[in-house]
Structure formats: C-alpha cells, structure tokens
Amino acid sequence: MRIIAKRTLQEFWKQHPATETPLKLWYYHVKSTKWHSANDVIKQYPMARSIGNTRFIFKIKGNRYRLIVRINFDHQLVLIRFIGSHQAYDKIDAKTI
Known about the structure:
Distance between the termini: 21 Å
Strand content: 25-35%
Helix content: 25-40%
CATH architecture: 2-Layer Sandwich
Number of strands: 5
Order of helices and strands: EHHHEEEEH
CATH class: Alpha Beta
CATH topology: YaeB-like fold
Strand order of the largest sheet: 1-5-4-3-2
C-alpha cells in the first residue's frame, strides 16, 4: 500500500512522542501489505473499524489516539484523513473529514 502522507504522522508524533513507535509500526506494516477489501483490513487489524465510504478508524496507543484513513483498494492507496486524541476525534465527523 502507498500511504499519503507520512509527513502528517511525523508531525503528529513530534508533538506527541508517545505515539511515535505505534505510528511507525502501523506505517511500516501497512506499507508492506496489500489490501483488496475491507475484510483484509479487519483481518490484519481486528480492532480497526470500517465507517463506510472506504474509511477506517485505527486505535493507536491503547485507544488514546485515533487514526482515520480512506483506502482506495483498486490503486492500493491509503490517505490519512485524521490523527488525533480521542477527545479531538469526538469533535469531528469521521465520515466526512
């Protein structure tokens, strides 16, 4: 999978150092895989949740942070839409961000 944009993750973990290792692990695992459907995502990340519109929520660092991505399975592309604390997540519309 190609992930757009790693810089978003890097900027976040610079501000929240406790997320650096979990986000790096997520990034390198996803980068080295190929997902063809939502089932593939959930199979690899059972705690991930599909919220429709090819968007998925990943719990980071014991659910203290949330990562929302949009996946284009045909083009093997993952677009980072949001990374933030659980509190910040509660203030957004995950289906449209």
